[in-house]
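Box 3.1 A note on notation
Throughout this textbook, protein chains are presented in two layers. The first layer is the amino acid sequence; the second is a C-alpha cell string describing backbone geometry. Keep the layers aligned when reading.
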Amino acid sequence: MTIQQRVDAANQKVAQMLTQGRPVWVDVQPAGQVIPGMTSHTILVPGPPIEIGRITPPIRTSVCGAVIHEGLAQTPAQAWEMVERGEILIRSSQDYGAANAACMVTSASMPVIVVEDKTYGGRGYAPLHPGPNPKCLRWGLYDEEVEQDLRWFRDVYGPALGQAVRLAGGIDVITVLAKTAGMGDENHNRQPAASMYLALQLIPWLLQIQSPKKDRVITHLAANDRFFLHVMMAGVESITQSCKQVPLSTVMVGMGGNGVEFGIQMAGTGNRWYTTQAPKIQGTFLKAGITEADIVGYLGDSCVTEVYGLGGMSAIAGPAYMRLTGSDYAEARSRTQKARTVSLAEHTFAPVPWENYAGFPVGVDARKVVGCNVLPISHGGSALRAGGQAGAGAAELPLECFKEALRGIAAQARRIQAEEEAK
C-alpha cells in the first residue's frame, strides 16, 4: 500500500470509531482514584501544555484554589510558590483522557464523571458541571464560598450521583442525544433538552440512594440545564482514547485552548499538540462595558464535543444559540456546511428535522481543511482576565494548527517508511 492508501485506511478506521463508539456514563469517582497517572500533586488544566510563567490569571486562580482544596497549601501565594518550585504538576487534561471546560481544573479529590466506550473500551473523564452559579472555579474564581461548594461536590453531590448511576446500570450518552434530536441543542454551548432528559433518567435512581442530602442533590441536578455538557465531554474522551492509537490518521481527535495558545491533536500522533496563538471568541458579552481587551484567548476543553461533531459543527441544530450570540439561521447552516465539507462521516442517530433530517458531520480531516481552505467554526464561552464569564460566541479554528498537524503526520509517514525499508 502507498502512504496515501494507508492514510485513507487509517482515517476510515477512525471515522468508524467516532460513529460506532458507544459512550456510557458508568460512575462518578475521585479523580485520583480513576484517572491513569493522576497523583495527589497533579492538577489537570485545559488546553495544550503551557509554561508556568504564561498561565493566564483565571487559570492561575483555579490552580491555586485546587491546591488549597487538596490541603496542600493555606493561601493562594503558598499554592503558587509550590507550582513555581515544581511541587505541583500542571498537566494538560486531554493528555490524560480528561477534559476541563472554561477555566476549570481537576485535582485528585475532585469527583469526575467516568464514561466508558462500550464498543472500543476507552474511558474518559470530566469534572461535574457546577450549575448556574457564576461564582465558581470553572470560571477562574475562588474564595471560601467556592471552597464550600467544592467540598459539597466532593463529599455529597459526587458520591450521590455515583450511587445513582451505578444503580441505573449506566446511562447511554447516544440515547440522550437521539431522544433529544430536534429540540434545539447543539450540545456544546446549549443543551437544556439533553440535560433535562438526563435528569429524568437519573432522578428515579437518586430517590433510591442512601443519602440524607438527596433532596438537595436532586434539586441541584434538575436546576442545571448545562449538566449534560460535562457528561458529553467525558464521552468524547472515552472514544478518542482509542482513536489516538491509529497511526497516520489525519482526523482531528482533540482540541482546546489555554487562553494563550489553541491546539489540536490528530489521531495519528496521539497526544502531540499542534498549536498557534489562541483566537478570541467573538459574539455577545454578558454585561455592557466588557471589551475584547478584557478577555483571554480561547480557553477550555469543552470544544472536544466539536471533535464529535457538536457545537459549531452542528450549529444548524441549535438556532437559538445563534440568535443569542448575535448571529442568524443562515450562518448556522453555513457553519454546519463548512463542517460537512471537511469531515469524513456523519452521525445518523440525531437527525435535524429542519435540515431534511440530516445528521451532524464528524471526523474533521486536516487534509480537507488545508486543501479546501475551509476552516471549521467552534462555539465557546469567553473568560475575563480577572475571572468570570465574559460572554459567548464562536471562533474559526486556526489554519496553522492543521498545517502543522499535516507536517507531523508526514514526518511520521517518513519514519514508518524508513523503518520498513531498513528491515
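The CA atoms of residues 73 and 79 lie 5 Å apart. The two ends are 17 Å apart (CA to CA).
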